[in-house]
Structures are given as C-alpha cells and as structure tokens.
Predict the structure.
Amino acid sequence: MNGYRKSKGIVIELTALLDVILIMLFWVIMNIQDESRTASEDAAKKAAAAEHQLEIVQEELDVKTNQLERYVSMLENIDKNAADNQQALTDYENGMLVTLDICYDKSGKLVICNSSGKLGETKISSEKEVCGCITQALENAGLERNDVVLCALIYDGGASLYKDVRSVSAAVDMVRNEYKNFYCAYINTAQKNK
C-alpha cells in the first residue's frame, strides 16, 4: 500500500509473564504452608509445655492440700488433747489420782490405788508382771488406752530397795507404751521426812 504500515500497537507476550506469575504464586503458597506448619508445631510445643506446667502445679497443689489437711487434723487433735488434759486435771483436783505405792512386809509389793480404793496389788518380781498388774488395775478403774491418766509412784527412798524402784519405773515405762497419755510423777517420801 503506500509504504505506510499500519501500526498494530505494542504486542505483549503474556505467556512468559503468566509463567512468572504462576511460579511466584506457587512459591507464596508453599511458603505459607511451611509457615503454618511451623506455627502449628510451635503451638503444639507450647500447649505441651503448658500441660506439663499444669501437671506440676496440680502436684504441688495436691501436696499443699495434704499438708493443710494434716495441719487441720493436728489442730483438731490439739483441741481434743487439751480438753482431755483439762478433764484429767479436774479429776486430779477431785482426787482421781492413781497411786503406785511400794510397800514392804516380807518382800516388796506394789499397791495400786485411786480415790475409790485399792485397784490391785502385786509382788515386785519382774517388770512384765508389774506392768500387767498396773494395766489390769487401770482397766479395773474404767480407764481406756486413750484416756489421760495421772499417776504418782510413791516410795520411801530410805526403806525401798533401788532394784524395786527401778523395776517399777521400767514397768511404768512399759505402761506408757500402751497408754500414750499416761503421766507418772515419782515421789520419794524419805526426802519429805528430813
């Protein structure tokens, strides 16, 4: 035609551009998947750590709860023991003392009494026999193993044999193993006579 060519305009090749866009889109999607997987793993680790921490705190709470329950139980026992001790002192004021008297006729004997009279008597031979007699006398008096028992071992230090006082003292210690609230005072009447 006249030597003029009609200009068709700028032709942009879209195939190469489309390939680049798809590659970039693929790269972004893969990157997002990696980040979400990493975030998911981090969240799982944090959840496991928090669960472990919760278990530790729960164990500590259980230990503290058990301690608190023991302390409450101890305080309740202290109140009960104080009431039992007060009752024993009131009974003592009213003459409810158990006495263990070491007496001699031909041989040494132990006489066990309280305010209502004689509860028992035994020859001082072995610690077990004396302990058995004291325990039987306490049962005869109606005292139970949890009761508070106030007792006095009375002996004349000038006339009593040392082995007899020692045997009765050992028997009293054996009675303490059975009666946890058994309290015994040792009274030497020879010291009062001076």
Notes: Strands lie at 98-104, 108-114, 117-123, 149-155, 182-188. Residues 95-192 form a domain with the Nucleotidyltransferase; domain 5 fold (CATH 3.30.420.140). The chain has two domains: 12-94, 95-192. The chain has a mean pLDDT of 81.
